[in-house]
Each structure stands twice: as structure tokens, then as C-alpha cells.
Amino acid sequence: MTDADRGFLDLSHVQKRFGGFTAVHDFDLSAHRGEFVSFLGPSGCGKTTTLRMIAGFEYPDGGSIKVDGKEITGLPPNKRNVGMVFQSYALFPNMTVASNVGFGMRVKGRPKATIDKRVGELLELINMPDKASSYPFQLSGGQQQRVALARALAIEPQVLLLDEPLSALDAKIRVALRKEIRDIQRQLGITTVYVTHDQEEALELSDRVVVMSQGRIEQVGTPFEIYNFPATAFVASFVGTLNALPARIVEPASGRIEFGGREVRAGSTLSGRPGDEVMVAIRPEMISLAGIDPEPSDATNRLPATIEDVAFLGSVVRFKVSVGSDATIINVDTFNNPNLAVPSAGSSVWITFPPEACLVLARDAVAVDTDVLAAAEAML
Amino acid sequence: MKRRRGSIAWWLIFAVGVAYFFLPLFATLDFSLKARPAFAAYNNSFNDPKFLASLIYSFVIGLLTIAASMGLIIPTAYWVHLKLPRARPIIEFVTLLPFVIPPVVLVFGLIRVYSRAPLPLTHTDLGSSALLVFGYVVLSLPYMYRAVDAGLRSIDIRTLTEAAQSMGAGWATILWRIILPNLRVAVLSGAFLTLAIVLGEFTIASFLARPAFGPYLSLLAGYKAYEPAAVSLISFGLTWLAMIVIALIGRDTRNRIEMGGAH
């Protein structure tokens, strides 16, 4: 790696084993100064272990970690200048909010006046200037996590690490607080690594998302890239909702595939041979219901379907429709509005989707990863 | 009807419990007050210079034992919780050994080892007192370790430690500023139990020929009738006073920790 393409936080070939189990395989990442990077993946995928290696709470068995070009791989956590926010807040129960926030600066021997000034600024930043003398038990979960954030920022860390900081909070607070975290991160321009299993959180907050599975990086990309151009079957199945349809290649060059006794077209040339069994992955929001959604300009892929179920998910209405001779169930999402003429269960409809909405994957890969998806959805 | 019968049964059990606890105390009090003139046993006890001297000696030895015990047990229990959780059953077993090894065995062992070179501690008063402290540290192990262990279980020490480390704190700072303040109640409980043991202990102090409160009480019982009862009640009162102090000091801290500071 040359200096020119070096990032601010560099992880190079990082590995971690626990006994015979490899938790992290050959992890490479280069985050730029001020970048917000999220590690996203199901439980046990190695995201927290990687974060803990950056913090110094675990030491890698191989590879190196650098911050601003300085090797920190073997440094103890208290010598790294890396701030950490924990899922369980980890505020010191015996200290007030102000003491908690000022703790790191006291440890570093800063003058009292400097500490008081900085604590005041940070409490302003998290909108809690009136809580300086409160104890952690007197605060709500959201307030405690904001104090934990201020405490981590007080030492002016080179890198800020957040380990599922919002997962112990209720949904409304979570949404409000993640916006606050993002605003503060942008305001301070601090390089941040955020661990989450919540894809919505990762997609909303991050400049880049690292999707992980079984200790390996599956894909690194912007939220837009991760969602719209998944590099692997796992990413396609883990991020967002996905319809995985069994299909067969008809003509690879033109992208023609056969599904449920009907022929549809994918947007690109296929790599397999005619007759190869594949899976077609389509996002629910990429499918239109004729008569409800506007007809797509390119209605090449048009299939008869039967409405099986209708679910209102707030801003979205999700239809479950059966398609093809084997009645494969497909999810179709459309935006909710009061004038929507919602077809009832049992109605016959047509579904359409553009060729570029079809992501064609090897069947085995998706067969495995739909299990992962089911597990991940159950977890969420 | 059933409920009323149950309630009466509970009151009966409670009354038996109270009687079991207080009757001996009442009998001792009654006996101590039989000395004439009134309160003579208490006056004689307080006027005996050996009473106060032995009590102060035991109290000082108790404080030294508490300090040594804390210095040994808090870092050990903390480290075991943090880094060696699998060693916990072994440590627990070791701390229970004073229950199965009688103090007389312990003190003979101490005398045998420390009455000759290279560490002839029994040859001096200071050395013998140091041996007494060592012996009491061993006796206090089950109480102090359990109290500290319970305290460590009530807080998420791993995350608190990591949070402090990420802010630049070293081990000494973490122990002194984070762990110890959050163990205040637990440590106080262990400390006062230790003090209670030390104040009443006879065997080790007697074999080491130390002017402690236990041997004094025993000696007193040999030639006086009412005074030992009075002295016993005084030491009992002091122990209770210590317990009340724990309750008062610990109340605020316990609230803070239980109500959500540590997870």
C-alpha cells in the first residue's frame, strides 16, 4: 500500500482466532479521515470482534491495524486514543454526568479549567447542559447513551467506535438518536466505525457499509451500491427484502430465463449455459402490480399472478402474490396512499418488472443465503 | 380462614426466631446486671485498663487485617472475574479452606514456620502481631471474598473496565476510581464481618500470646463472674453499631447501582 492510497484507519489482512474457530478472516479495510463506516452482518459474523481489535480489547492473530499511518496493532487500549461507545452505555455509576464526560481528560491530566470548559461544550453538543450533576441512574436510556457518546468524544479520539449503541433503545429513540449521532459525527468530522445488525441503521448513517458474514467481508460499498448492486448472494439476501425465484437459463447471451413456465429477461448477459438452474433475485419494490402501480416503460417481464395476502406496513403496502405453475410466493411492495385500490385476496393480477431488476445468482448460493435471511429477519 | 391460620403460623415462627436470638442476650444482660451495686459489671469493665487496651489492640489489628485482606482480595477477585473466569471455582474453594482447617492448625503452622530462620517473626511483638494479621486475613477470606465477589457480579466490570481503558485509564486508575467506588457496599460488608471476627477471635491470638480482646475476655471469665457477660454485650453492641454504619453508608451507593448505572 502506498502513502497515496493509504487511509486514516487501515486494517490489513487482520485475522482473529478463538481456539479452533476463526472469527475474522483476512480483513482489509481502509477508511478515510472523517468517514463513517458501518460493519453490518448477522450475529457471529465477526463485526464486533473486528471493532474490538481496533479498540485494543482483542489482539489480532495476524495482520496490522494503523491509525494515521501509525501502527497500533500491539498497543494496549489505553494507549490508542480510540473512543468507544458500548451497547450497554457503560457509564460509571459512581460518577455524575459531568464526571463521566470529564473522566478521560482527568486521566490524561488536563487542567481543571480545560476539563470544565470541554465538558460544558460537550453537554451542549448532546443537548444536556442541565444534567451535569445528575447520576446515570437518573437518566433515560437515550440520555445515558448520549452521555456515553460525549464521554467518548471528550478525549478527542482519532477514531470513534460504536458497538451497536442503539440496540438497547426503543424504536423512536433509536431513530432520533441515530440522526443525532450522524449530525455530531459530521460536525466534528471524526472517523467513525459503527457496528450494527440493523441494515436500516447502517444504510442511513454510513458513508460506506462493510457487509460481513462468517468472519469475511462480503462487500464494501456505499449504501446505494450495497442495496442496488449487491456483490454476493449473501448481501442480496441480507440487505433489504428479497424475492428469490428458482429459474432456468434459456439463452445466456440475451439474458433470457424461464421461470414458472414463462420466459422473462434479465438486464445483462448471463454467465451460465442454457438449461442451468439459477435463482432470480428481485426486490419487492422493483415489481409493479398492473392496475395499481404505473406500468413500467419496459414491460418485457409480465406475469399473471394471484393475490394471496395484503399487509399494511405503514407507508408501504406489501402484497404476497403467487406466480407460475408452482405458485411461487413473491412479495410486491407499493407505497401506501388513501386512494389505493387494494385488490382483495384471490384476485388475479399482472405483475411486471424491468429486466435490470433481475439479479441472477447461482441457485446453491441463494438456497444457503435465504436461510441466513430467514435467521436474520427472525433476529430483527 | 386458611389465610388467617397461615398468618398466625408465620407470626409463631417469627416469635420463635426472635426468642432464639434475643433470649440468650436477655439472659446475659440479666446476669450482668445482678452485680451490686447497679451496673458494677459495666463500670468495672470500663475501669479496667486492659479492657480498653485489648479492645483498641484488636480494633487496630482488625483494621490492618481489613486493609491487607482488601489489598489481596479485591485485585484478585477483579482479575479472576475479568480475565480468568474459569479459575473462579478454584479461588472459591481456596477461600473456603478456613472453614475446614481449624484456626488451631493454622496458628501451629504459622508458629512452626515463622519461629525460626529465615523469618523468625514470633521473636518480636511486632512480628507476632504481623503473624496475627496474616492469620486473620486467612480467616476473613470466606467472608471478604464472597462479599467482593457478590459486588463484582452486580456490576458489568468488563464493560466498565473497557470503557475506562478506552479513555486512557491504566489498571491502578480503573481499580481505584471505577471498581472500588462501585464495590463500596460489598467491601464494607466484608470489612465489618472481618472486624467482627477479629474482635471475637481467641485461638490464634492466644497461641501467639497477643493482648487481644478474645484472650482478655477468656481470661476475665476465669476469675470474674459478671464482667465477662457485660463485656460480651458491649462487644455485641459495637458489632451492631458497625452493621448500622454499613447500612447507612451503603444505602446511597446501592440505589445508584441498582437503578441502572451499571448493566
How would you describe what is shown here?
The complex is a heterodimer of chains A (380) and B (263). Chain A is α+β, with helices and mostly antiparallel strands. Chain A is 27% helix and 33% strand. Chain A contains 9 helices and 20 strands. A 6-stranded mixed β-sheet of chain A has the order 6-7-8-3-9-10, sandwiched between helices. A 5-stranded antiparallel β-sheet of chain A has the order 13-12-11-14-20. In chain A, a hairpin with a 3-residue loop joins strand 16 and strand 17. The two termini of chain A are 38 Å apart. Residues 366-380 of chain A have low confidence and may be disordered. Chain B is an all-alpha fold. Chain B contains 12 helices and no strands. In chain B, helix 6 runs antiparallel to helix 9 (184-200) and helix 7 packs across helix 8. The radius of gyration of chain B is 22 Å and the shape is globular. The chains are: A alpha+beta (380), B mainly alpha (263).
Order of helices and strands of chain B: HHHHHHHHHHHH
Strand fraction of chain B equals: under 5%
Query: Which structural class fits the helix and strand makeup of chain B?
Result: mainly alpha
**Count of individual helical segments of chain B:** 12
Largest sheet of chain A: 6 strands, mixed
Instruction: Characterize the quaternary organization of these chains.
Output: heterodimer
- Largest interface: which pair? A-B, 35 and 29 residues
| Biggest pleated-sheet summary of chain B | none
Low-confidence stretches of chain B: 257-263
Counted beta strands of chain B: 0
**Strand-pairing-aware structural class of chain A:** alpha+beta
Bulk shape of chain A: elongated
Write the element-wise H/E pattern of chain A from the N-terminal end onward.
EEEHEEEHHHEHEHEEHHEEEEEEEEEEH
Strand percentage of chain A? 25-35%
